[in-house]
């Protein structure tokens, strides 16, 4: 897996498409249609996200898990094991990471880095920030490569 992190609107997907277009065998026809067909974590079902080779908005996928979004259709063991006062249903972090890696080990996963800045006042937002960071740490430990993108420029950190 290749993990790409960075702030909002920093060019993470464009960086990924440019960096791996040749090795991903992206044809000219696909490039003309706007590049890779990305699976978006803010919208995709569990199965679609699980099978996606190029997935973005992973942070929004985690938000949906924490909120126990019924449209996600995540398995009970992953979605909502431990209920918190904040209303979050904390996912099984290790189970989630294992399933993501097993389903598509060569995936390119793009996520916003949401741990910088002011700590949110809202309990749900704090849990969301914390869980996203912890899950991304687990993914980074297992990833073949980890990249941080800022202003469209990628820096390999693993």
Automatic annotation (TrEMBL):
It holds the Pfam family CobU. It comes from the Bacteria. This is Adenosylcobinamide kinase. It comes from Enterocloster alcoholdehydrogenati.
């Amino acid at each position: 897996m290749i993990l790409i992190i960075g702030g909002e609107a920093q060019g993470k997907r464009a960086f990924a498409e440019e960096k791996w277009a040749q090795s991903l065998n992206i044809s000219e026809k696909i490039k003309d249609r706007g590049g890779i067909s990305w699976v978006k974590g803010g919208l995709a079902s569990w199965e679609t996200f699980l099978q996606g080779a190029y997935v973005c908005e992973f942070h929004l996928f985690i938000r949906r898990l924490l909120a126990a979004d019924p449209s996600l259709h995540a398995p009970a063991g992953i979605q909502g094991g431990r209920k918190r006062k904040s209303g979050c249903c904390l996912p099984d972090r290790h189970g989630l990471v294992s399933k993501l890696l097993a389903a598509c080990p060569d995936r390119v996963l793009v996520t916003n880095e949401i741990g910088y800045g002011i700590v949110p006042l809202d309990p749900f937002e704090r849990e969301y920030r914390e869980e996203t960071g912890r899950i991304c740490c687990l993914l980074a430990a297992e990833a073949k490569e980890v990249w941080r993108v800022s202003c469209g420029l990628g820096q390999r950190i693993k």
